[in-house]
Protein backbone atom coordinates (compact mmCIF):
# COMPACT_ATOMS: atom_id res chain seq x y z
CA UNK A 1 0.00 0.00 0.00
CA UNK A 2 1.28 3.50 -0.89
CA UNK A 3 1.82 5.98 1.92
CA UNK A 4 -0.66 8.79 1.44
CA UNK A 5 0.78 12.29 1.08
CA UNK A 6 -1.11 14.83 3.14
CA UNK A 7 -1.58 18.04 1.14
CA UNK A 8 -1.75 21.06 3.46
CA UNK A 9 -3.05 24.61 3.19
CA UNK A 10 -0.40 27.32 3.08
CA UNK A 11 -1.43 30.26 5.23
CA UNK A 12 0.93 33.12 6.02
CA UNK A 13 3.79 31.14 4.47
CA UNK A 14 3.24 28.15 6.76
CA UNK A 15 1.82 24.75 5.93
CA UNK A 16 -1.25 23.81 7.95
CA UNK A 17 -3.24 20.59 7.90
CA UNK A 18 -5.51 21.39 10.82
CA UNK A 19 -8.70 19.98 9.43
CA UNK A 20 -11.35 17.51 10.50
CA UNK A 21 -12.10 16.72 6.89
CA UNK A 22 -9.86 15.37 4.15
CA UNK A 23 -10.57 14.55 0.51
CA UNK A 24 -8.89 11.74 -1.43
CA UNK A 25 -6.47 12.57 -4.26
CA UNK A 26 -5.91 9.93 -6.93
CA UNK A 27 -3.44 9.26 -9.69
CA UNK A 28 -5.95 9.01 -12.57
CA UNK A 29 -3.50 6.98 -14.66
CA UNK A 30 -3.44 4.16 -12.10
CA UNK A 31 -6.62 4.70 -10.12
CA UNK A 32 -4.54 4.57 -6.96
CA UNK A 33 -5.14 7.01 -4.10
CA UNK A 34 -1.90 8.92 -3.61
CA UNK A 35 -2.84 11.58 -1.14
CA UNK A 36 -5.41 13.29 0.97
CA UNK A 37 -6.08 16.99 0.95
CA UNK A 38 -7.20 19.04 3.92
CA UNK A 39 -10.68 20.50 3.37
CA UNK A 40 -10.86 23.83 5.16
CA UNK A 41 -13.72 24.59 7.50
CA UNK A 42 -14.99 28.07 8.34
CA UNK A 43 -12.41 28.68 11.06
CA UNK A 44 -9.48 27.88 8.76
CA UNK A 45 -10.96 30.14 6.09
CA UNK A 46 -11.32 32.90 8.68
CA UNK A 47 -7.66 32.50 9.67
CA UNK A 48 -6.53 32.63 6.05
CA UNK A 49 -8.65 35.68 5.28
CA UNK A 50 -7.43 37.56 8.34
CA UNK A 51 -3.85 36.65 7.42
CA UNK A 52 -4.40 38.06 3.92
CA UNK A 53 -6.07 41.12 5.39
CA UNK A 54 -3.14 41.72 7.74
CA UNK A 55 -0.67 41.44 4.84
CA UNK A 56 -2.58 43.95 2.69
CA UNK A 57 -1.29 47.30 4.02
CA UNK A 58 2.35 46.22 3.70
CA UNK A 59 1.91 44.72 0.25
CA UNK A 60 -0.05 47.58 -1.28
CA UNK A 61 2.64 49.96 0.03
CA UNK A 62 5.46 47.87 -1.47
CA UNK A 63 7.22 49.70 -4.28
CA UNK A 64 6.26 48.59 -7.76
CA UNK A 65 9.90 48.04 -8.73
CA UNK A 66 10.23 45.56 -5.87
CA UNK A 67 7.04 43.79 -6.96
CA UNK A 68 8.38 43.63 -10.52
CA UNK A 69 11.59 41.95 -9.36
CA UNK A 70 9.53 39.17 -7.76
CA UNK A 71 7.87 38.41 -11.10
CA UNK A 72 11.23 38.22 -12.91
CA UNK A 73 12.54 35.87 -10.24
CA UNK A 74 9.36 33.78 -10.33
CA UNK A 75 9.76 33.39 -14.08
CA UNK A 76 13.29 32.06 -13.56
CA UNK A 77 12.15 29.59 -10.90
CA UNK A 78 9.27 28.19 -12.94
CA UNK A 79 11.31 28.06 -16.15
CA UNK A 80 14.24 26.25 -14.57
CA UNK A 81 12.03 23.75 -12.70
CA UNK A 82 9.21 23.26 -15.16
CA UNK A 83 9.81 19.52 -15.52
CA UNK A 84 9.27 19.16 -11.79
CA UNK A 85 6.01 21.11 -11.97
CA UNK A 86 4.91 19.13 -15.06
CA UNK A 87 5.34 15.93 -13.06
CA UNK A 88 3.29 17.31 -10.16
CA UNK A 89 0.52 18.21 -12.63
CA UNK A 90 0.67 14.88 -14.44
CA UNK A 91 0.55 12.75 -11.29
CA UNK A 92 -2.71 14.24 -10.04
CA UNK A 93 -4.39 15.40 -13.26
CA UNK A 94 -3.25 12.59 -15.56
CA UNK A 95 -2.35 14.73 -18.58
CA UNK A 96 0.88 13.62 -20.25
CA UNK A 97 3.98 15.67 -19.26
CA UNK A 98 4.36 17.25 -22.74
CA UNK A 99 0.82 18.61 -22.37
CA UNK A 100 1.57 19.73 -18.81
CA UNK A 101 4.60 21.60 -20.20
CA UNK A 102 2.25 23.46 -22.56
CA UNK A 103 0.04 24.44 -19.65
CA UNK A 104 3.07 25.79 -17.78
CA UNK A 105 4.20 27.78 -20.84
CA UNK A 106 0.75 29.41 -21.10
CA UNK A 107 0.78 30.11 -17.35
CA UNK A 108 4.22 31.69 -17.64
CA UNK A 109 2.84 34.20 -20.14
CA UNK A 110 0.88 35.70 -17.25
CA UNK A 111 3.98 35.93 -15.09
CA UNK A 112 5.76 37.68 -17.97
CA UNK A 113 2.84 40.06 -18.54
CA UNK A 114 2.84 40.96 -14.85
CA UNK A 115 6.58 41.59 -14.92
CA UNK A 116 5.46 44.65 -16.90
CA UNK A 117 3.28 45.81 -14.01
CA UNK A 118 4.92 49.26 -13.96
CA UNK A 119 3.17 49.86 -17.25
CA UNK A 120 -0.10 48.14 -16.34
CA UNK A 121 -0.46 50.09 -13.08
CA UNK A 122 0.11 53.45 -14.71
CA UNK A 123 -2.74 55.90 -14.31
CA UNK A 124 -3.79 58.87 -16.41
CA UNK A 125 -3.09 62.57 -16.07
CA UNK A 126 -4.80 65.55 -17.60
CA UNK A 127 -3.18 68.93 -17.21
CA UNK A 128 -5.32 72.08 -17.23
CA UNK A 129 -8.65 70.25 -17.38
CA UNK A 130 -10.12 73.62 -16.39
CA UNK A 131 -8.26 76.76 -15.61
CA UNK A 132 -5.60 75.87 -13.02
CA UNK A 133 -7.03 72.41 -12.53
CA UNK A 134 -5.30 69.08 -13.10
CA UNK A 135 -7.01 65.68 -12.96
CA UNK A 136 -5.33 62.32 -12.51
CA UNK A 137 -6.47 58.76 -12.08
CA UNK A 138 -4.66 56.11 -10.05
CA UNK A 139 -5.16 52.36 -9.69
CA UNK A 140 -5.44 50.92 -6.21
CA UNK A 141 -5.91 47.28 -5.18
CA UNK A 142 -9.40 46.12 -4.29
CA UNK A 143 -8.29 44.28 -1.13
CA UNK A 144 -8.38 40.56 -0.42
CA UNK A 145 -9.18 38.62 -3.58
CA UNK A 146 -10.47 35.04 -3.84
CA UNK A 147 -9.29 32.86 -6.73
CA UNK A 148 -11.22 29.60 -7.18
CA UNK A 149 -9.91 27.26 -9.84
CA UNK A 150 -10.92 24.05 -11.68
CA UNK A 151 -9.12 20.71 -11.95
CA UNK A 152 -8.30 20.82 -15.64
CA UNK A 153 -5.47 23.37 -15.56
CA UNK A 154 -4.13 23.04 -12.01
CA UNK A 155 -1.17 25.37 -12.68
CA UNK A 156 -2.24 27.59 -15.56
CA UNK A 157 -5.58 28.82 -14.23
CA UNK A 158 -4.15 29.74 -10.79
CA UNK A 159 -1.43 31.65 -12.68
CA UNK A 160 -4.12 33.38 -14.79
CA UNK A 161 -5.54 34.88 -11.62
CA UNK A 162 -3.04 35.24 -8.82
CA UNK A 163 -0.34 36.93 -10.93
CA UNK A 164 -2.32 40.06 -11.80
CA UNK A 165 -4.11 40.13 -8.44
CA UNK A 166 -0.75 40.21 -6.65
CA UNK A 167 0.90 42.55 -9.17
CA UNK A 168 -1.90 45.05 -8.56
CA UNK A 169 -1.21 45.06 -4.80
CA UNK A 170 -3.99 42.77 -3.58
CA UNK A 171 -3.58 39.84 -1.24
CA UNK A 172 -5.03 36.50 -2.26
CA UNK A 173 -6.83 33.39 -1.07
CA UNK A 174 -6.37 30.71 -3.72
CA UNK A 175 -8.78 27.74 -3.53
CA UNK A 176 -7.69 25.18 -6.14
CA UNK A 177 -9.57 22.08 -7.19
CA UNK A 178 -9.51 19.45 -4.48
CA UNK A 179 -8.91 16.80 -7.16
CA UNK A 180 -5.38 17.98 -8.06
CA UNK A 181 -4.33 20.42 -5.34
CA UNK A 182 -0.53 20.00 -5.25
CA UNK A 183 0.30 22.27 -8.22
CA UNK A 184 -1.18 25.26 -6.38
CA UNK A 185 1.04 24.56 -3.38
CA UNK A 186 4.04 24.33 -5.73
CA UNK A 187 3.20 27.73 -7.20
CA UNK A 188 2.72 29.38 -3.81
CA UNK A 189 6.11 28.05 -2.68
CA UNK A 190 7.72 29.32 -5.89
CA UNK A 191 6.26 32.78 -5.21
CA UNK A 192 7.74 32.72 -1.71
CA UNK A 193 11.10 31.63 -3.06
CA UNK A 194 10.90 34.56 -5.47
CA UNK A 195 10.56 36.92 -2.51
CA UNK A 196 6.80 37.35 -2.06
CA UNK A 197 6.14 38.22 1.60
CA UNK A 198 4.22 35.70 3.70
CA UNK A 199 0.47 36.23 3.79
CA UNK A 200 0.17 37.86 0.36
CA UNK A 201 -0.70 34.58 -1.35
CA UNK A 202 -2.42 31.90 0.71
CA UNK A 203 -3.78 28.60 -0.46
CA UNK A 204 -6.78 27.09 1.22
CA UNK A 205 -7.98 23.72 0.01
CA UNK A 206 -11.55 22.56 0.16
CA UNK A 207 -14.92 22.05 -1.42
CA UNK A 208 -18.29 23.80 -1.67
CA UNK A 209 -18.40 24.71 2.04
CA UNK A 210 -14.91 26.17 1.88
CA UNK A 211 -15.73 28.20 -1.24
CA UNK A 212 -18.89 29.60 0.31
CA UNK A 213 -17.04 30.60 3.51
CA UNK A 214 -14.40 32.38 1.40
CA UNK A 215 -16.92 34.29 -0.70
CA UNK A 216 -18.94 35.31 2.35
CA UNK A 217 -15.91 36.57 4.31
CA UNK A 218 -16.46 40.34 4.61
CA UNK A 219 -12.78 41.14 3.88
CA UNK A 220 -12.96 39.36 0.50
CA UNK A 221 -13.78 42.08 -2.01
CA UNK A 222 -13.45 40.32 -5.37
CA UNK A 223 -13.91 36.78 -6.64
CA UNK A 224 -12.34 35.20 -9.71
CA UNK A 225 -13.80 31.81 -10.54
CA UNK A 226 -13.23 29.28 -13.32
CA UNK A 227 -15.20 26.04 -13.44
CA UNK A 228 -18.45 24.55 -14.71
CA UNK A 229 -21.39 26.73 -15.73
CA UNK A 230 -23.88 25.90 -12.94
CA UNK A 231 -21.27 26.57 -10.26
CA UNK A 232 -19.99 29.69 -12.06
CA UNK A 233 -23.52 31.07 -12.14
CA UNK A 234 -24.16 30.36 -8.46
CA UNK A 235 -20.78 31.84 -7.43
CA UNK A 236 -21.55 34.95 -9.46
CA UNK A 237 -24.94 35.36 -7.80
CA UNK A 238 -23.56 34.75 -4.31
CA UNK A 239 -20.68 37.21 -4.69
CA UNK A 240 -22.54 39.98 -6.48
CA UNK A 241 -25.53 39.80 -4.13
CA UNK A 242 -23.07 40.83 -1.43
CA UNK A 243 -21.85 43.74 -3.54
CA UNK A 244 -18.56 42.05 -4.44
CA UNK A 245 -17.08 42.16 -7.89
CA UNK A 246 -17.00 38.79 -9.59
CA UNK A 247 -15.84 37.22 -12.82
CA UNK A 248 -17.02 33.62 -13.13
CA UNK A 249 -15.95 31.65 -16.19
CA UNK A 250 -18.02 28.58 -17.00
CA UNK A 251 -18.18 25.63 -19.37
CA UNK A 252 -18.01 25.38 -23.12
CA UNK A 253 -19.01 23.54 -26.28
CA UNK A 254 -16.59 24.70 -28.94
CA UNK A 255 -17.44 24.23 -32.61
CA UNK A 256 -14.95 24.02 -35.46
CA UNK A 257 -16.42 24.88 -38.87
CA UNK A 258 -14.69 23.32 -41.86
CA UNK A 259 -15.50 25.02 -45.17
CA UNK A 260 -15.40 23.14 -48.49
CA UNK A 261 -12.27 25.08 -49.55
CA UNK A 262 -10.30 24.16 -46.42
CA UNK A 263 -7.25 21.91 -46.50
CA UNK A 264 -8.96 18.78 -45.15
CA UNK A 265 -5.78 17.11 -43.91
CA UNK A 266 -4.86 20.19 -41.89
CA UNK A 267 -8.44 20.43 -40.60
CA UNK A 268 -8.44 16.75 -39.58
CA UNK A 269 -5.09 17.18 -37.78
CA UNK A 270 -6.47 20.23 -35.97
CA UNK A 271 -9.68 18.45 -34.97
CA UNK A 272 -7.69 15.54 -33.51
CA UNK A 273 -5.24 17.79 -31.64
CA UNK A 274 -7.90 20.12 -30.27
CA UNK A 275 -10.44 17.38 -29.58
CA UNK A 276 -8.28 14.80 -27.84
CA UNK A 277 -5.42 16.83 -26.32
CA UNK A 278 -5.64 16.57 -22.53
CA UNK A 279 -8.35 13.90 -23.10
CA UNK A 280 -10.75 16.66 -24.16
CA UNK A 281 -10.65 18.18 -20.68
CA UNK A 282 -9.95 21.70 -21.88
CA UNK A 283 -12.48 24.51 -21.81
CA UNK A 284 -11.18 25.44 -25.26
CA UNK A 285 -11.17 21.87 -26.62
CA UNK A 286 -12.97 21.40 -29.91
CA UNK A 287 -15.95 19.21 -29.16
CA UNK A 288 -18.10 19.70 -32.27
CA UNK A 289 -16.77 19.48 -35.83
CA UNK A 290 -19.07 21.23 -38.29
CA UNK A 291 -18.33 20.28 -41.91
CA UNK A 292 -20.07 22.49 -44.46
CA UNK A 293 -21.35 20.87 -47.65
CA UNK A 294 -20.21 17.71 -49.38
CA UNK A 295 -16.75 17.45 -47.80
CA UNK A 296 -18.28 15.82 -44.71
CA UNK A 297 -17.66 12.16 -45.63
CA UNK A 298 -14.06 12.80 -46.61
CA UNK A 299 -13.32 14.88 -43.49
CA UNK A 300 -14.92 12.37 -41.15
CA UNK A 301 -12.93 9.55 -42.76
CA UNK A 302 -9.68 11.48 -42.29
CA UNK A 303 -10.46 12.10 -38.60
CA UNK A 304 -11.39 8.45 -38.11
CA UNK A 305 -8.13 7.26 -39.72
CA UNK A 306 -6.08 9.49 -37.44
CA UNK A 307 -7.84 8.30 -34.27
CA UNK A 308 -6.50 4.81 -34.90
CA UNK A 309 -2.95 6.13 -34.58
CA UNK A 310 -3.30 7.94 -31.26
CA UNK A 311 -1.26 6.58 -28.36
CA UNK A 312 -3.29 6.51 -25.17
CA UNK A 313 -1.79 5.64 -21.79
CA UNK A 314 -0.10 6.95 -18.67
CA UNK A 315 2.15 9.99 -18.90
CA UNK A 316 5.03 7.97 -17.44
CA UNK A 317 5.57 6.66 -20.99
CA UNK A 318 6.76 9.70 -23.00
CA UNK A 319 5.35 8.18 -26.21
CA UNK A 320 1.78 8.51 -24.97
CA UNK A 321 -0.16 11.44 -26.38
CA UNK A 322 -3.35 11.23 -24.35
CA UNK A 323 -3.86 10.36 -20.69
CA UNK A 324 -6.88 9.38 -18.62
CA UNK A 325 -9.83 11.51 -17.54
CA UNK A 326 -9.81 12.91 -14.03
CA UNK A 327 -11.97 10.51 -11.96
CA UNK A 328 -13.80 7.21 -12.09
CA UNK A 329 -17.07 9.21 -12.01
CA UNK A 330 -15.99 11.29 -15.02
CA UNK A 331 -15.16 8.11 -16.94
CA UNK A 332 -18.55 6.61 -16.08
CA UNK A 333 -20.41 9.78 -17.11
CA UNK A 334 -18.56 10.07 -20.44
CA UNK A 335 -19.08 6.38 -21.21
CA UNK A 336 -22.77 6.77 -20.38
CA UNK A 337 -23.08 9.57 -22.93
CA UNK A 338 -21.35 7.46 -25.59
CA UNK A 339 -23.63 4.53 -24.75
CA UNK A 340 -26.76 6.59 -25.35
CA UNK A 341 -25.59 8.22 -28.59
CA UNK A 342 -26.82 5.63 -31.11
CA UNK A 343 -30.25 5.48 -29.48
CA UNK A 344 -30.60 9.25 -29.75
CA UNK A 345 -30.15 9.00 -33.53
CA UNK A 346 -26.41 9.66 -33.86
CA UNK A 347 -23.85 7.24 -35.29
CA UNK A 348 -20.93 6.17 -33.11
CA UNK A 349 -18.08 5.65 -35.57
CA UNK A 350 -15.29 5.08 -33.06
CA UNK A 351 -16.33 3.87 -29.61
CA UNK A 352 -13.76 4.76 -26.96
CA UNK A 353 -15.18 2.14 -24.62
CA UNK A 354 -13.93 -0.55 -26.98
CA UNK A 355 -10.40 0.82 -27.35
CA UNK A 356 -7.35 -1.14 -26.25
CA UNK A 357 -6.65 0.71 -23.02
CA UNK A 358 -4.60 0.19 -19.84
CA UNK A 359 -6.52 -1.99 -17.38
CA UNK A 360 -5.95 0.40 -14.48
CA UNK A 361 -6.83 4.08 -14.30
CA UNK A 362 -9.63 6.18 -15.72
CA UNK A 363 -8.98 5.84 -19.45
CA UNK A 364 -11.58 6.46 -22.13
CA UNK A 365 -10.48 5.92 -25.72
CA UNK A 366 -10.87 8.67 -28.34
CA UNK A 367 -14.44 8.60 -29.61
CA UNK A 368 -16.02 9.92 -32.82
CA UNK A 369 -19.78 10.35 -33.17
CA UNK A 370 -21.35 11.46 -36.46
CA UNK A 371 -24.77 12.87 -37.40
CA UNK A 372 -25.16 14.68 -34.09
CA UNK A 373 -27.85 17.33 -33.71
CA UNK A 374 -29.07 19.76 -31.05
CA UNK A 375 -31.43 17.98 -28.66
CA UNK A 376 -29.16 14.93 -28.37
CA UNK A 377 -27.35 14.68 -25.00
CA UNK A 378 -23.94 14.35 -26.72
CA UNK A 379 -24.61 17.73 -28.35
CA UNK A 380 -26.37 19.54 -25.52
CA UNK A 381 -24.02 18.55 -22.72
CA UNK A 382 -20.44 19.60 -22.17
CA UNK A 383 -18.92 16.12 -22.31
CA UNK A 384 -15.45 17.20 -21.11
CA UNK A 385 -13.83 14.00 -22.32
CA UNK A 386 -12.18 12.58 -25.46
CA UNK A 387 -15.33 12.66 -27.57
CA UNK A 388 -15.59 14.52 -30.87
CA UNK A 389 -19.04 14.89 -32.34
CA UNK A 390 -19.79 15.83 -35.92
CA UNK A 391 -22.75 18.06 -36.81
CA UNK A 392 -23.07 18.24 -40.59
CA UNK A 393 -24.42 21.42 -42.19
CA UNK A 394 -25.34 22.36 -45.76
CA UNK A 395 -24.21 25.98 -45.69
CA UNK A 396 -22.03 28.54 -43.97
CA UNK A 397 -25.14 30.34 -42.69
CA UNK A 398 -26.46 27.11 -41.16
CA UNK A 399 -23.11 26.55 -39.43
CA UNK A 400 -23.13 30.08 -38.01
CA UNK A 401 -26.69 29.80 -36.78
CA UNK A 402 -25.96 26.41 -35.15
CA UNK A 403 -23.13 28.00 -33.16
CA UNK A 404 -25.06 31.16 -32.33
CA UNK A 405 -27.94 29.06 -30.97
CA UNK A 406 -25.71 27.28 -28.47
CA UNK A 407 -25.88 28.39 -24.83
CA UNK A 408 -22.10 28.26 -24.56
CA UNK A 409 -19.87 30.75 -26.35
CA UNK A 410 -16.31 30.25 -25.17
CA UNK A 411 -14.28 29.48 -28.30
CA UNK A 412 -14.87 28.58 -31.93
CA UNK A 413 -12.87 28.22 -35.13
CA UNK A 414 -13.31 28.30 -38.86
CA UNK A 415 -11.07 26.49 -41.32
CA UNK A 416 -11.09 28.10 -44.76
CA UNK A 417 -8.76 29.49 -47.43
CA UNK A 418 -11.16 32.35 -48.20
CA UNK A 419 -10.56 35.68 -46.46
CA UNK A 420 -14.08 36.89 -47.06
CA UNK A 421 -15.60 33.83 -45.37
CA UNK A 422 -13.21 34.23 -42.45
CA UNK A 423 -14.16 37.88 -42.12
CA UNK A 424 -17.91 37.10 -42.24
CA UNK A 425 -17.39 34.43 -39.57
CA UNK A 426 -15.50 36.78 -37.30
CA UNK A 427 -18.12 39.51 -37.73
CA UNK A 428 -21.24 37.40 -37.20
CA UNK A 429 -20.26 34.72 -34.72
CA UNK A 430 -21.46 35.29 -31.15
CA UNK A 431 -18.53 33.75 -29.33
CA UNK A 432 -15.83 35.34 -27.17
CA UNK A 433 -12.71 33.80 -28.72
CA UNK A 434 -12.42 33.00 -32.41
CA UNK A 435 -9.77 31.06 -34.33
CA UNK A 436 -9.22 31.40 -38.06
CA UNK A 437 -7.40 28.22 -39.07
CA UNK A 438 -6.45 28.02 -35.36
CA UNK A 439 -8.44 25.37 -33.48
CA UNK A 440 -7.76 26.50 -29.90
CA UNK A 441 -7.68 30.29 -29.99
CA UNK A 442 -6.57 30.93 -26.41
CA UNK A 443 -5.44 34.56 -26.47
CA UNK A 444 -1.78 35.18 -25.66
CA UNK A 445 -1.08 36.80 -22.30
CA UNK A 446 -1.12 40.36 -23.69
CA UNK A 447 -4.86 39.99 -24.46
CA UNK A 448 -7.57 38.85 -22.09
CA UNK A 449 -9.47 35.54 -22.08
CA UNK A 450 -13.20 35.13 -21.84
CA UNK A 451 -16.26 33.63 -23.44
CA UNK A 452 -19.74 35.05 -23.89
CA UNK A 453 -23.21 33.86 -22.82
CA UNK A 454 -23.16 30.90 -20.37
CA UNK A 455 -19.38 30.66 -20.63
CA UNK A 456 -18.82 33.78 -18.52
CA UNK A 457 -20.81 35.52 -15.82
CA UNK A 458 -19.65 39.06 -15.24
CA UNK A 459 -18.26 41.61 -17.63
CA UNK A 460 -14.51 41.36 -17.24
CA UNK A 461 -12.38 38.82 -19.02
CA UNK A 462 -9.56 37.12 -17.22
CA UNK A 463 -5.77 37.85 -17.28
CA UNK A 464 -4.07 40.41 -19.51
CA UNK A 465 -5.16 44.07 -19.56
CA UNK A 466 -8.68 43.39 -18.28
CA UNK A 467 -7.24 41.72 -15.18
CA UNK A 468 -5.71 45.03 -14.12
CA UNK A 469 -9.16 46.58 -14.34
CA UNK A 470 -10.75 43.76 -12.37
CA UNK A 471 -8.14 43.75 -9.62
CA UNK A 472 -7.92 47.54 -9.18
CA UNK A 473 -10.22 50.36 -8.20
CA UNK A 474 -9.63 53.56 -10.08
CA UNK A 475 -9.49 56.75 -8.07
CA UNK A 476 -9.79 60.11 -9.78
CA UNK A 477 -8.19 63.13 -8.14
CA UNK A 478 -9.07 66.71 -9.13
CA UNK A 479 -6.71 69.35 -7.81
CA UNK A 480 -6.03 73.06 -7.92
CA UNK A 481 -3.57 75.29 -6.12
CA UNK A 482 -5.24 78.71 -6.08
CA UNK A 483 -3.76 81.86 -4.68
CA UNK A 484 -5.42 82.90 -1.43
CA UNK A 485 -6.67 86.01 -3.18
CA UNK A 486 -8.61 83.88 -5.66
CA UNK A 487 -10.74 82.26 -2.94
CA UNK A 488 -14.45 83.08 -3.01
CA UNK A 489 -17.80 81.64 -1.97
CA UNK A 490 -19.88 80.28 -4.82
CA UNK A 491 -22.95 78.11 -4.11
CA UNK A 492 -23.43 77.26 -7.78
CA UNK A 493 -22.33 73.91 -9.19
CA UNK A 494 -18.73 74.46 -10.35
CA UNK A 495 -18.31 74.95 -14.08
CA UNK A 496 -15.20 75.66 -16.03
P1 LIG B 1 -16.22 22.62 -11.00
O1 LIG B 1 -17.21 23.69 -11.30
O2 LIG B 1 -16.71 21.31 -10.53
O3 LIG B 1 -15.19 23.14 -9.87
C1 LIG B 1 -14.51 24.36 -9.98
C2 LIG B 1 -14.16 24.86 -8.58
O4 LIG B 1 -15.36 25.09 -7.85
C3 LIG B 1 -13.33 23.88 -7.76
O5 LIG B 1 -12.39 24.60 -7.01
C4 LIG B 1 -14.36 23.22 -6.85
O6 LIG B 1 -13.84 22.82 -5.61
C5 LIG B 1 -15.36 24.33 -6.65
N1 LIG B 1 -16.74 23.84 -6.45
C6 LIG B 1 -17.26 22.67 -6.88
N2 LIG B 1 -18.56 22.60 -6.57
C7 LIG B 1 -18.88 23.74 -5.93
C8 LIG B 1 -20.09 24.27 -5.36
N3 LIG B 1 -21.23 23.58 -5.41
N4 LIG B 1 -20.04 25.49 -4.79
C9 LIG B 1 -18.89 26.20 -4.75
N5 LIG B 1 -17.72 25.75 -5.27
C10 LIG B 1 -17.71 24.55 -5.86
O7 LIG B 1 -15.32 22.48 -12.31
P2 LIG B 1 -14.21 21.37 -12.62
O8 LIG B 1 -14.87 20.06 -12.86
O9 LIG B 1 -13.12 21.43 -11.62
O10 LIG B 1 -13.62 21.94 -14.00
C11 LIG B 1 -14.16 21.66 -15.25
C12 LIG B 1 -15.10 22.74 -15.71
O11 LIG B 1 -14.42 23.99 -15.74
C13 LIG B 1 -15.59 22.53 -17.13
O12 LIG B 1 -16.95 22.87 -17.18
C14 LIG B 1 -14.75 23.49 -17.96
O13 LIG B 1 -15.32 23.91 -19.17
C15 LIG B 1 -14.62 24.62 -17.02
N6 LIG B 1 -13.49 25.46 -17.36
C16 LIG B 1 -13.75 26.66 -17.93
C17 LIG B 1 -12.70 27.47 -18.29
C18 LIG B 1 -12.96 28.79 -18.92
O14 LIG B 1 -12.02 29.54 -19.08
N7 LIG B 1 -14.18 29.15 -19.27
C19 LIG B 1 -11.39 27.06 -18.07
C20 LIG B 1 -11.16 25.82 -17.48
C21 LIG B 1 -12.24 25.02 -17.13
Automatic annotation (TrEMBL):
Pfam families: Aldedh (PF00171)
Keyword Mitochondrion: no
Organism phylogeny: Bacteria, Bacillati, Actinomycetota, Actinomycetes, Micrococcales
Enzyme Commission numbers on file: 1.2.1.27
Organism: Rothia endophytica
PANTHER family: MALONATE-SEMIALDEHYDE DEHYDROGENASE
Classification via SUPFAM superfamilies: ALDH-like (SSF53720)
Residue ranges of every copy of the Aldehyde dehydrogenase domain listed in the record: 18-477
The protein's name in its UniProt record: methylmalonate-semialdehyde dehydrogenase (CoA acylating)
Keywords: NAD, Oxidoreductase
Domain of life of the organism encoding this protein: Bacteria
Regions that span the bilayer: none
